[in-house]
Amino acid sequence: MNKEDKILIVGAGLCGSLLALRLAQRGFKIHLFESRPDLRKVDISAGRSINLALSDRGLKGLNLCGLANEVQSICIPMYGRQVHDLTGKTFDSKYSGREEECINSISRRDLNALLLNKVEAHENVSIYFNKKCTHIDIENTSIQFYDYETKATALIKGDVIFGADGAGSILRKQYISEQKFLFSYAQNYLKHGYKELEIPAGKNVEHQLSKSHLHIWPRGEYMLIALPNMNGSFTVTLFLSNSEGVYNFENLTSEEKITTFFKDQFPDALALISNIKEEFVKNPTGYLGTVKCSPWSYKNKTLLIGDASHAIVPFYGQGMNASFEDVLVFDSILDQNLNSWQDTFIAFEKKRKKDTDAIADLAVDNFHEMKDHVANPLFKEKRKIEMDLEKHFPKEYFSKYALVTFRDDIPYYEAMKKGRAQDKALLNLIADQKINTHLHMNQQELKNILDKIKAQTNTILQEDKIAGL
Ligand SMILES: Cc1cc2nc3c(=O)[nH]c(=O)nc-3n(C[C@H](O)[C@H](O)[C@H](O)COP(=O)(O)OP(=O)(O)OC[C@H]3O[C@@H](n4cnc5c(N)ncnc54)[C@H](O)[C@@H]3O)c2cc1C
To answer: Model pTM?
Structure first.
């Protein structure tokens, strides 16, 4: 590993840009290639969600590069969910009993632009836009590009290649097609797709719903969510089956059907979306899937990172956060000064893979929680107890959501194991009426509940260990 090595990064999205920045800060020479035009100059849809939920793990990754404060100035904090029922009535469900804990709504474009500005400030980085990587020779570490401007194809040779090219990664495809090594790969699509819509700002550029909440309209088989933007609008996302059920993306084809669906299911949201038919038809339907694969690297030559190695469904709001955490973990491996890129790549995957597998599974679990369970009385009871415990025992109790979202010191895998056992313990205790809850519990009553949950959680964790889970 040499600072003179020519490092090629494919993809100047969120992960590729942060990776380029960190490696440049460490003094490496970077060439960063992006198939799209420069999003700071051309108004292009980022291709995926317009805004994202940024939380502690992502902020920690950004902080590594000294960016957390700047990024926080373009964030809107969201302290909980606001759940909308069929009649338009709402109830609030906080993310945490600790007052300060929140997630942040941020524009994908603004965040990516900020990262690119920082990358560009480094002399040892060259960024190339409109260059689509069409082939990677993993043995010779060379990349073939198609240039959208000149319509020419070119070949670039490097010493190391990072594939930060997202869920459809060309580097990953190359691993599969070249069959040079045993490459395990699984891609699972959800039956649900998604479509983005907009609630515009009000007359005085104000938000028309509470901007300190992530809004959810859970309807069992489908749901709508909305996150605030800095300009007063909300980006609304409909998650709906592609072809199953009474309503699905395939059969919502006419203005009448679309309007009837929204009138029936989301009347309060419909009242705020200005032109449902036009938006519904114009905006693409996206697909959602999980990618797991291994190994992420080939010899001392190439490495997959970010969504390219572990694309996940968006229901925990952790895909970008996990990708930023990748950069943080990779940086910590570089600190070990291992002998070669190969050793570094292997150590990185060894440290990281079970955590990215864990967040992939948790994200699918949360899909069911959001579209269905949030409105369930047992779930509401559980969340009420958790809020009280977090408020009164802020250093002792962390819900599964808090472990995943706010405890950036605990790896995803540990958060998953503990969070799942704790959920099971709490739900069992409620269902078996082993804990008595009422509206205004005092400290001692809550302490008794906490002790019971801890004891049950430990028993479950012990059992899981014996069962090899
Ligand atoms: C609907 C939705 C909502 C989401 N919400 C959240 C959220 O709230 N919080 C969160 O943390 N995550 C969220 N995510 C996940 C998040 O978007 C991804 O995890 C994140 O974008 C991954 O970053 P990346 O850089 O690895 O990949 P990408 O963001 O996909 O970037 C890849 C880049 O590579 C470029 N590229 C691709 N192919 C080539 C090629 N052949 N040649 C050159 N360049 C190429 C692309 O143009 C792109 O710029 C959401 C995802 C979706 C779909």
So the answer is: 0.96
